[in-house]
Amino acid sequence: MVESKTGRVSVKFFTRPGCHLCDGARREMLEAAVGALYELQEIDIDSDPDLVRRFGWDIPVVMINGLVVFKHRLTRGDFRREIQHASSLVGRGPRG
């Protein structure tokens, strides 16, 4: 499990300028009202040729604690559930 240095859930949001699906996903993430539970890193895939090759037009992508959880679309309810679940696991170590 990948955790942020703050002990909160680590969220990576892969996006690019002008992506309307990314704008919608960002809005849903904000409206989920769980910002205190996670640390967000927003990454413009156009800044790295490897990310462009990896994701291309397959964005937005949301990784939570190192796992791809959402592609293209998400709802605030689904995002909230995933963040709350991940938050409940922070500090527990790997499942097993």
Number of helices: 3
- Strands of the widest sheet, in order across it, are 2-1-3-4
Q: Gyration radius, to the nearest Å?
A: 13 Å
Q: Please name the fourth-level CATH homologous superfamily.
A: Glutaredoxin
Helix content: 25-40%
Mean pLDDT: 90
From the N-terminal CA to the C-terminal CA, the straight-line distance is 12 Å
Biggest β-sheet, characterized?
4 strands, mixed
- What structural class do helix, strand and pairing data support? alpha+beta
List unreliable stretches of 5+ residues.
Answer: none
Tally of separate domains: 1
Strand content: 15-25%
Give me the strand/helix succession.
Answer: EHEHEEH
Give the CATH level 1 class. Alpha Beta
Task: Characterize the structure shown.
The chain is of the alpha+beta class and 96 residues long. It has a single domain, classed as 3-Layer(aba) Sandwich (Glutaredoxin). The protein is 34% helix and 24% strand. The protein contains 3 helices and 4 strands, in the order βαβαββα. The chain has helices spanning 20-31, 49-55, 76-89; strands at residues 9-15, 38-44, 61-64, 67-71. The protein has a 4-stranded mixed beta sheet. α1 (20-31) links the parallel β1 (9-15) and β2. The longest helix has 14 residues, at 76-89. The protein is globular, with a radius of gyration of 13 Å. The mean pLDDT is 90.
